[in-house]
C-alpha cells in the first residue's frame, strides 16, 4: 500500500471524529435545560406590580388582588391576593358594629364628662340627687365605652393576624397603606414566613432592625421615607409569621 494513501485515510478519520465531537457538543448545548428565573423578591419596591402609595384602582388593574374587601376597620380597605381568603360577611358585619358601638359610646362618655366638669352643685337635696344620678350615668357610660373599645381592639387583632398569615393589600385615603407578603414569598435576603428569628436578626440587625409596636420587628426603608419592612413573629416567638411593607406614618383615614 502506498504511504500517501495511508496518510489520506488518517486525515479523513480525524476530520470525521472532529465533526462528530462538534455535533455531540451542539446536541448537549441544545438539550441543556434553560436557566430557571429567580423568584420575585418581596420588598421596598412592592410585589407583583403593587407598590407603596399606589391607588387602589391602579392596584386592582394589575389583576393580582381580589376585588371584594375582607376587612374595612379604621377606614382601611383590606383586599386579599387572588386565591387568598374570601370575604366573611359575618366577620365584616361584626367589625362594622364594633366600630360603630365604640365610636358612639366614646362620644357619649366624653359628653358626660364635659357636662360633669361644667356642672355647678346645687344646695338642695333634689340637686344633689340629680347630680349623683348624672355621675352614675357617666360612670356607666365610661365602663361601657371601655368594654366597646376592648372589643374593637380584639377585632383589630383578629384582622392583623389574618393579614400576617395570608398577606394582601390595605388601602387608605392616600393609596396603599400596607402590603403583606403571600405565603411562600421571601425578601431578597431570603426571609419569609417560617424563617427563624435568628436568621432574621442575622440578615437585618446591622441595617437597623428594631422591635416596634405590637411586637413586630421593623426595618426603615431608606428609599421610601416613612415606610418600614415589618416582620410579625409567630405566637410562640420562634419564627417569622408574616412579612409586610407598611406606611408607619400615615393612617388609613
How would you sum up this structure, described in words?
Residues 97-118 have a biased composition (Basic and acidic residues). Residues 95-131 are annotated as: Disordered. Keywords: Signal. Residues 1-23 form the signal peptide. The chain has 253 residues and is α+β, with helices and mostly antiparallel strands. It is 45% helix and 14% strand. It contains five helices and seven strands. It has a seven-stranded antiparallel β-sheet. A hairpin with a 2-residue loop joins strand 2 (168-172) and strand 3 (175-180). Helix 3 packs antiparallel against helix 4 (125-166). It is elongated. The model is unreliable at 1-29 (pLDDT under 50).
Mean of all residue-level pLDDT scores = 87
Which strand order does the major sheet show? 1-2-3-7-6-5-4
Strand content: 5-15%
The biggest sheet amounts to:
7 strands, antiparallel
Binned, the helix content reads 40-55%
As residue ranges, the low-confidence spans are 1-29
- Number of extended strands: 7
* N/C terminus separation: 100 Å
Helix/sheet category: alpha+beta
How much is the radius of gyration in Å?
Answer: 32 Å
What's the helix and strand layout?
Elements: H1 3-31, H2 56-61, E1 77-79, H3 89-118, H4 125-166, E2 168-172, E3 175-180, H5 197-204, E4 210-211, E5 217-220, E6 227-233, E7 240-247
Antiparallel strand pairs: 1-2, 2-3, 3-7, 4-5, 5-6, 6-7
Features:
5 helices; 7-stranded antiparallel sheet; 253 residues; 7 strands; single chain; disordered N terminus; alpha+beta; elongated
Short description:
Residues 97-118 have a biased composition (Basic and acidic residues). 45% of the residues lie in helices and 14% in strands.
Amino acid at each position: 500500500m502506498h504511504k500517501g494513501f495511508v496518510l489520506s485515510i488518517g486525515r479523513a478519520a480525524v476530520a470525521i471524529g472532529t465533526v462528530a465531537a462538534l455535533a455531540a457538543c451542539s446536541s448537549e448545548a441544545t438539550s441543556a435545560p434553560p436557566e430557571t428565573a429567580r423568584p420575585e423578591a418581596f420588598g421596598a419596591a412592592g410585589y407583583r406590580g403593587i407598590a407603596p402609595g399606589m391607588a387602589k384602582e391602579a392596584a386592582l388593574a394589575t389583576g393580582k388582588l381580589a376585588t371584594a374587601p375582607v376587612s374595612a376597620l379604621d377606614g382601611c380597605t383590606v383586599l386579599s391576593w387572588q386565591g387568598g381568603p374570601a370575604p366573611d360577611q359575618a366577620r365584616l358585619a361584626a367589625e362594622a358594629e364594633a366600630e360603630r358601638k365604640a365610636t358612639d359610646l366614646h362620644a357619649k362618655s366624653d359628653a358626660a364628662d364635659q357636662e360633669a366638669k361644667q356642672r355647678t352643685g346645687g344646695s338642695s337635696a333634689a340637686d344633689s340627687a340629680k347630680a349623683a344620678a348624672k355621675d352614675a350615668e357617666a360612670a356607666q357610660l365610661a365602663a361601657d365605652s371601655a368594654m366597646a373599645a376592648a372589643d374593637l381592639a380584639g377585632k383589630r387583632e383578629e384582622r392583623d393576624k389574618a393579614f400576617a398569615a395570608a398577606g394582601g393589600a390595605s388601602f387608605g385615603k392616600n393609596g396603599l397603606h400596607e402590603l403583606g407578603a403571600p405565603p411562600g414569598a421571601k425578601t431578597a435576603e431570603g426571609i419569609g414566613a417560617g424563617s427563624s428569628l435568628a436568621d432574621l436578626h442575622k440578615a437585618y440587625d446591622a441595617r437597623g432592625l428594631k422591635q416596634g409596636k405590637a411586637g413586630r420587628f421593623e426595618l426603615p426603608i431608606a428609599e421610601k421615607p416613612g415606610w418600614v419592612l415589618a416582620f410579625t413573629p409567630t405566637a410562640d416567638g420562634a419564627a417569622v409569621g408574616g412579612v409586610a411593607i407598611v406606611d408607619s406614618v400615615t393612617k388609613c383615614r
